[in-house]
Amino acid sequence: MARSRGEKEDCYDKSTGLIKLLQVLSFLVVFVVGVVIGLATSAHINRHFDAQTEIYSFINHFSSSKETPHQQGEPSCTVAQSCERIDCLSMETFLEPNNLTHGMTDNELFWRASMVPAKKEYPYQRVPKVAFMFMTRGPLPLMPLWERFFQGHDKLFSVYVHVVPGYKLNASTTSPFYRRQIPSQPVSWGTITLIDAERRLLANALLDFSNECFVLLSESCIPVYNFPTVYKYLIGANYSFVESYDDPGRYGRGRYSRKMLPDIQLYQWRKGSQWFELSRTLAALIVSEVQYYTVFSKYCLPACYPDEHYMPTYFNMFHGSLNSNRTVTWVDWSLGGPHPATYGGDNITEDFIRSIRNNGALCQYNAEMTSICYLFARKFAPTALEPLLELASSVMEF
């Protein structure tokens, strides 16, 4: 009986040991299977991200290959381009962007351009520049005259060109117009889209913190003085040059709509030339202003022309003390009609250009009177280019 009980105890011990051994083996099997599954999953994830990286690299390569000629080879910090080679947060890139191509919407662009530093001191040696902003439907036939005007003054100006979408400006690699097109939108004469284009030019130019003065020009504009004279005149001015006056006739007050009440009263309504020069302060106000732009977009419809009334009215209402109420761009309206006179090659004489430079009238500049009232003139046809180049050195002195 005792021996039988001992045999049973031996069998029990053997069974217990076998069970423990099976448990250990089961744990080892589960552990090994887990390791294998983990390694397989990790390899799959790595392959997935490698594939995504290859796709992203392909997109970047494709995007770069689709760049227009004026974008290629020029540093920029766009969404599709890595900042590994370019310090996108460097002060140089922030203060003076050298690539005008970007993917911002107008609202994003205006928001960014409206930022004004609270600290007045600049963290670098700032040399103020004049931004020359050209709004054109296509080519700039008078470009050679402007290139001659700009020659030798590279650090004192910048150029911005707004053309119809898809048009490529033909400029040589040595031209100040080379790669100076901004992202544009379609523009229709006599509509709010003209104001949109003006604000677009201002906003792009405001991204360069060295730009202090902003001049709007067209493809038919010419300079009538040399660059040093123009630069000194604009940089030294205490006021901006936006024509603003009260016209009681049908082409002035006659364009006012009572639907603009209560935002704009009739006595506040003003008219003026589209061709302006703004200080940096006023330029930032225009790209950030929403309320009165909205009123004009709703109620200043043909035959109310927003480009002749929006800035003159807005500055009259709120910033008259910063404005001279005159333009620095000469134009001949003596023929009547909706468009000024156009001058071709046969009209260009020395006496004619001198009459624009010194027309016998005086105007106020800062606190003094001066005979230099117009720095630019329009409208000039492409045929005027050659005679203007012949007179540039002797009459316009550049």
From TrEMBL:
<keyword id="KW-0472">Membrane</keyword>
<dbReference type="InterPro" id="IPR003406">
    <property type="entry name" value="Glyco_trans_14"/>
</dbReference>
<keyword id="KW-0812">Transmembrane</keyword>
<keyword id="KW-0325">Glycoprotein</keyword>
<dbReference type="GO" id="GO:0016020">
    <property type="term" value="C:membrane"/>
</dbReference>
<keyword id="KW-0328">Glycosyltransferase</keyword>
<dbReference type="InterPro" id="IPR044174">
    <property type="entry name" value="BC10-like"/>
</dbReference>
<protein>
    <submittedName>
        <fullName>Putative glycosyl transferase, family 14</fullName>
    </submittedName>
</protein>
<keyword id="KW-0808">Transferase</keyword>
<dbReference type="GO" id="GO:0016757">
    <property type="term" value="F:glycosyltransferase activity"/>
</dbReference>
<keyword id="KW-1133">Transmembrane helix</keyword>
<dbReference type="Pfam" id="PF02485">
    <property type="entry name" value="Branch"/>
</dbReference>
<feature type="transmembrane region" description="Helical">
    <location>
        <begin position="21"/>
        <end position="40"/>
    </location>
</feature>
